[in-house]
Design a protein that fits this description.
The chain has 285 residues and is α/β, with parallel strands linked by helices. 47% of the residues lie in helices and 12% in strands. About 8% of the residues have low confidence. One of its GO terms (molecular function) is isomerase activity.
Length: 285
């Protein structure tokens, strides 16, 4: 099983599905600089892979991620850092501990390390699915926000709790949460730091599906997605993401560009042939 540089994140690739796991179960997968670096490293590797057609992101054990490690919070407070997660992210060129991953240089839209650990999942061409069980708090919830689809278990706890530490969600949370739940609900969740469970998360659109075993369900959904045309999957994700930043005319033109690039290719013809064969088989049965 491949590990990232610090062995805090592991991943496997099986039949087009990459399963990425934060591997600090004994610490509820709490976040440190090394975890951020490993997430970015793995995300970059998957971004370059043409083998992968879907990605599942989860945490080992009973938690997705309980957020920033308390030892990191204490260390940063002792050093007089103004904002805990911003400093952990390595904003700018100065950092209490230094960083191995492009501090100050942009990865996509993100410049800070902790932001890159969230943003990198949107840069992967194919769908990324989060399987959420137990705590997904603070930075843990923000990492989940960076994925395309979220599946929650019955014991999930979701909270952007940074306000309780006198800071704000600075790992893309203020920008991504409103896209899912709207600006009013996003302001409420950020300003109160309240934790919500699975049913409420589904009701407000924070997660897309509930499952008794969210990781197993995420892997099942990823396997189904991986059976589809990779080129079509890439365009589908790209077009939906474009809808957040482009005007309608630009988006509609991009749809036509996508269709022109897909239709009649060997890959598309193979998909059609296989589907017609399945339909013929069902009709005979």
């Amino acid at each position: 099983m491949p590990h990232a540089a610090h062995s805090n994140v592991t991943y496997t690739i099986d039949r087009g599905v990459a399963h990425v796991e934060i591997d600090r179960a004994e610490k509820l997968n709490s976040l440190t600089r090394e975890v951020f670096e490993d997430l970015v490293e793995v995300g970059r590797a998957l971004k370059e892979s043409t083998e992968v057609r879907a990605v599942v992101l989860s945490g080992r054990g009973r938690a997705f991620s309980a957020g920033l490690d308390f030892t990191e919070m204490s260390r940063l407070a002792d050093e007089g850092t103004a904002t805990a997660s911003a400093a952990e992210a390595g904003v700018g060129n100065a950092s209490p501990t230094g960083s191995a991953v492009d501090v100050g240089e942009r990865l996509g839209s993100a410049r800070a390390l902790a932001q890159k650990a969230v943003h990198v999942w949107s840069l992967i061409e194919v769908p990324v699915i989060a399987g959420l069980r137990g705590p997904a708090l603070g930075g843990g919830m923000q990492i989940a926000l960076g994925t395309d689809i979220r599946i929650a278990g019955p014991d999930v706890q979701l909270s952007l709790m940074e306000i309780k530490w006198g800071i704000i969600p600075d790992m893309c949370g203020t920008q991504l949460l409103p896209r899912l739940v709207g600006p009013g609900m996003a302001k409420k969740l950020i300003a109160t730091g309240e934790a919500i469970g699975a049913e409420e998360a589904l009701r407000i659109g924070l997660v897309e599906e509930l499952a008794e075993d969210p990781v197993a369900r995420a892997l099942e959904l990823a396997a189904d997605i991986a059976g589809k045309s990779r080129s079509a999957l890439v365009w589908a994700k790209k077009l939906v993401d474009l809808s957040y930043e482009a005007d309608l005319a630009t988006g509609l033109d991009a749809e036509q560009e996508a269709l022109a690039s897909l239709i009649g290719t060997d890959e598309q013809r193979a998909v059609v042939t296989e589907r017609l064969a399945r339909m013929a088989k069902r009709s005979k049965g």
